[in-house]
Design brief:
The structure is a single chain. By secondary structure, the chain is an alpha+beta fold. The protein is built from 5 helices and 5 strands, in the order H-E-E-E-H-E-H-E-H-H. The protein has a domain of about 100 residues: GMP Synthetase, Chain A, domain 3, CATH 3.30.300. The strands form 2 sheets. It has a 3-stranded antiparallel sheet, with no helix packed on it. It has a two-stranded antiparallel ribbon with strand order 4-5. Strand 1 and strand 2 form a beta hairpin. The longest helix is centred in the middle third of the chain and has 23 residues. It is globular and about 50 Å long. The N and C termini lie far apart (about 50 Å). About 10% of the residues are buried.
Length: about 170
Protein backbone atom coordinates (compact mmCIF):
# COMPACT_ATOMS: atom_id res chain seq x y z
CA UNK A 1 0.00 0.00 0.00
CA UNK A 2 2.81 2.45 0.86
CA UNK A 3 4.38 1.86 -2.56
CA UNK A 4 1.08 2.72 -4.27
CA UNK A 5 0.74 5.90 -2.18
CA UNK A 6 4.34 6.89 -2.96
CA UNK A 7 3.87 6.31 -6.70
CA UNK A 8 0.59 8.25 -6.76
CA UNK A 9 2.18 11.22 -4.98
CA UNK A 10 5.18 11.13 -7.34
CA UNK A 11 2.83 11.08 -10.35
CA UNK A 12 0.71 13.95 -8.99
CA UNK A 13 3.79 16.00 -8.09
CA UNK A 14 5.38 15.43 -11.49
CA UNK A 15 2.16 16.33 -13.29
CA UNK A 16 1.61 19.54 -11.29
CA UNK A 17 5.22 20.65 -11.78
CA UNK A 18 4.62 20.37 -15.53
CA UNK A 19 1.11 21.92 -15.36
CA UNK A 20 1.15 24.40 -12.44
CA UNK A 21 -2.01 26.17 -13.64
CA UNK A 22 -3.97 23.00 -12.85
CA UNK A 23 -2.90 22.96 -9.20
CA UNK A 24 -5.53 25.53 -8.21
CA UNK A 25 -9.18 24.53 -8.41
CA UNK A 26 -12.57 24.92 -6.77
CA UNK A 27 -13.12 22.25 -4.12
CA UNK A 28 -16.15 19.99 -4.34
CA UNK A 29 -19.36 21.17 -2.74
CA UNK A 30 -20.57 20.06 0.67
CA UNK A 31 -24.35 20.42 0.74
CA UNK A 32 -26.11 20.21 4.11
CA UNK A 33 -29.85 19.55 3.90
CA UNK A 34 -32.10 19.67 6.96
CA UNK A 35 -33.81 16.30 7.47
CA UNK A 36 -35.62 17.05 10.72
CA UNK A 37 -35.05 18.97 13.92
CA UNK A 38 -31.32 19.79 13.90
CA UNK A 39 -30.28 16.71 11.88
CA UNK A 40 -28.55 17.44 8.56
CA UNK A 41 -27.44 15.12 5.77
CA UNK A 42 -24.27 16.45 4.19
CA UNK A 43 -23.61 15.17 0.67
CA UNK A 44 -20.86 15.55 -1.89
CA UNK A 45 -21.37 15.70 -5.68
CA UNK A 46 -20.75 11.94 -5.94
CA UNK A 47 -23.64 11.18 -3.55
CA UNK A 48 -21.53 10.18 -0.55
CA UNK A 49 -22.98 11.46 2.69
CA UNK A 50 -22.59 11.90 6.41
CA UNK A 51 -25.17 12.95 8.98
CA UNK A 52 -24.76 15.55 11.72
CA UNK A 53 -26.99 16.48 14.62
CA UNK A 54 -26.79 18.64 17.69
CA UNK A 55 -26.86 17.45 21.32
CA UNK A 56 -30.23 16.98 22.96
CA UNK A 57 -29.44 19.85 25.35
CA UNK A 58 -29.99 22.33 22.51
CA UNK A 59 -32.87 20.50 20.83
CA UNK A 60 -31.12 17.92 18.69
CA UNK A 61 -31.51 14.17 18.94
CA UNK A 62 -27.84 13.71 19.88
CA UNK A 63 -27.67 10.51 17.82
CA UNK A 64 -25.16 11.64 15.19
CA UNK A 65 -21.94 13.62 15.62
CA UNK A 66 -22.25 17.38 15.76
CA UNK A 67 -20.55 19.82 13.40
CA UNK A 68 -17.82 20.59 15.96
CA UNK A 69 -16.95 16.90 16.23
CA UNK A 70 -16.88 16.65 12.42
CA UNK A 71 -14.37 19.53 12.39
CA UNK A 72 -12.17 17.67 14.90
CA UNK A 73 -12.59 14.50 12.83
CA UNK A 74 -11.48 16.40 9.73
CA UNK A 75 -8.37 17.60 11.55
CA UNK A 76 -7.56 14.13 12.93
CA UNK A 77 -8.01 12.38 9.59
CA UNK A 78 -6.18 15.09 7.65
CA UNK A 79 -3.14 14.95 9.94
CA UNK A 80 -3.19 11.15 9.86
CA UNK A 81 -3.44 11.11 6.07
CA UNK A 82 -0.55 13.53 5.64
CA UNK A 83 1.65 11.64 8.10
CA UNK A 84 0.94 8.41 6.21
CA UNK A 85 1.58 10.11 2.87
CA UNK A 86 4.90 11.53 4.05
CA UNK A 87 5.89 8.18 5.53
CA UNK A 88 5.27 6.54 2.15
CA UNK A 89 7.25 9.27 0.36
CA UNK A 90 10.23 8.85 2.70
CA UNK A 91 10.04 5.04 2.95
CA UNK A 92 9.18 5.06 6.66
CA UNK A 93 7.25 1.93 7.59
CA UNK A 94 4.47 2.79 10.00
CA UNK A 95 3.58 0.31 12.70
CA UNK A 96 1.09 2.51 14.50
CA UNK A 97 -0.67 5.77 13.68
CA UNK A 98 -3.50 7.22 15.71
CA UNK A 99 -4.49 10.89 15.81
CA UNK A 100 -6.72 12.16 18.61
CA UNK A 101 -8.10 15.71 18.57
CA UNK A 102 -9.87 17.38 21.46
CA UNK A 103 -10.91 20.94 22.07
CA UNK A 104 -12.27 23.27 24.71
CA UNK A 105 -15.35 25.34 23.97
CA UNK A 106 -17.68 27.73 25.76
CA UNK A 107 -21.35 27.31 24.82
CA UNK A 108 -22.11 30.92 25.71
CA UNK A 109 -20.53 31.82 22.35
CA UNK A 110 -22.53 29.49 20.11
CA UNK A 111 -25.79 30.26 21.96
CA UNK A 112 -25.24 34.03 21.81
CA UNK A 113 -25.39 34.44 25.59
CA UNK A 114 -22.20 36.50 25.75
CA UNK A 115 -21.03 38.22 22.56
CA UNK A 116 -17.49 38.51 23.96
CA UNK A 117 -17.16 34.70 23.95
CA UNK A 118 -16.19 33.25 20.54
CA UNK A 119 -18.40 30.59 18.98
CA UNK A 120 -15.31 28.69 17.84
CA UNK A 121 -13.31 26.37 20.08
CA UNK A 122 -11.11 28.23 22.55
CA UNK A 123 -8.27 25.76 22.07
CA UNK A 124 -7.53 22.47 20.32
CA UNK A 125 -5.04 19.72 21.03
CA UNK A 126 -3.76 17.14 18.54
CA UNK A 127 -2.21 14.02 20.10
CA UNK A 128 -0.41 11.69 17.70
CA UNK A 129 0.49 8.14 18.68
CA UNK A 130 3.05 7.07 16.12
CA UNK A 131 5.57 4.30 15.73
CA UNK A 132 7.72 3.36 12.77
CA UNK A 133 9.40 0.04 12.17
CA UNK A 134 13.07 0.56 13.09
CA UNK A 135 12.86 4.33 12.68
CA UNK A 136 14.67 6.94 14.73
CA UNK A 137 12.77 9.42 16.87
CA UNK A 138 13.97 12.17 14.54
CA UNK A 139 12.50 10.42 11.49
CA UNK A 140 9.16 10.07 13.29
CA UNK A 141 9.22 13.70 14.46
CA UNK A 142 9.97 14.91 10.94
CA UNK A 143 6.84 13.15 9.62
CA UNK A 144 4.68 15.04 12.11
CA UNK A 145 6.42 18.36 11.51
CA UNK A 146 5.96 18.00 7.75
CA UNK A 147 2.29 17.04 8.13
CA UNK A 148 1.59 19.96 10.46
CA UNK A 149 2.99 22.45 7.95
CA UNK A 150 1.09 20.94 4.99
CA UNK A 151 -2.25 20.01 6.60
CA UNK A 152 -4.96 22.17 4.98
CA UNK A 153 -7.28 21.74 7.97
CA UNK A 154 -4.67 23.03 10.42
CA UNK A 155 -3.85 25.86 8.03
CA UNK A 156 -7.53 26.76 7.74
CA UNK A 157 -8.03 26.73 11.50
CA UNK A 158 -4.91 28.83 12.17
CA UNK A 159 -5.36 31.38 9.40
CA UNK A 160 -8.41 33.46 8.66
CA UNK A 161 -10.03 32.33 5.42
CA UNK A 162 -12.27 34.77 3.57
CA UNK A 163 -15.82 33.45 3.78
CA UNK A 164 -18.75 34.96 1.92
CA UNK A 165 -22.37 34.11 2.59
CA UNK A 166 -24.96 34.16 -0.19
CA UNK A 167 -28.66 33.90 0.61
CA UNK A 168 -31.16 32.49 -1.87
CA UNK A 169 -34.74 32.93 -0.68
CA UNK A 170 -37.39 30.61 -2.06
Amino acid sequence: MADQIKKSIENATDYLRKHPAEARYTDSLATATLERGLRFRITDPDGRSIVSDMPSGVGGEGVNPGPGWLMRAALASCMGSLIAMRAAQTDVQLEKLEVVVDSESDDRGILGIDESVPARPLSMNVRINLAGKGETDEAIKSLVAWAEVHCPVIDELRSPVPISTELVIG
